Amino acid sequence: MNKHEWHSSSPGETAAFAERLGSLLQKGDVLTLEGDLGAGKTTFTKGLAKGLEITRTVNSPTFTIMKEYQGRLPLYHMDVYRVEDEFEDLGFDEYFNGDGVCVVEWAHLIQEQLPEERLDLSIYYVENDSRRFELVPRGSRYEALCEEILR
Question: Can you give the three-state secondary structure of the chain, one letter per residue?
Fold first, then answer.
């Protein structure tokens, strides 16, 4: 399993990177997103949504577990931080195998329910507005996606 790194020096750079990634996403793609509070998960997801041609304002689904947005493809933005039981069946697999793109924040909390093939992203605070992104593709589709976006 390969691990890739990408560095951002500003929220604008993060959003542009995410927008480019969003423009390459396809039906059924699943991305997990880990990072401390304030690391830039929402900035990243907003950029991703723009790349999916979503015009609605995207914000964190902290209290609702999931928000759905319509664009070139539907975006299912999940925040599973408040899921009590990792094995509780909340129907995630319907979304993971659905017609849209899934972004799952705090995905480690539902590890057993995640599809084997996905792109795991972690955002690390460096200093001020600088962030380090770690991308771990799981499967050939996501390896190709990383090669494309990190060119």
Answer: CCCEEEEECCHHHHHHHHHHHHHHCCCCCEEEEEECCCCCHHHHHHHHHHHCCCCCCCCCCCCCCEEEECCCCCEEEEECCCCCCCCCCCCHHHHHCCCCEEEEECHHHHHHHCCCCEEEEEEEEEECCEEEEEEEEECHHHHHHHHHHCC
User: For the whole prediction, is pTM greater than 0.90?
Assistant: yes
Instruction: For the beta carbon of residue 25, count every other beta carbon within 10 angstroms.
Output: 22
User: What are 8-62's pLDDT values in tens digits?
Assistant: 999 999 999 999 999 999 999 999 999 988 888 989 999 999 999 999 988 876 6
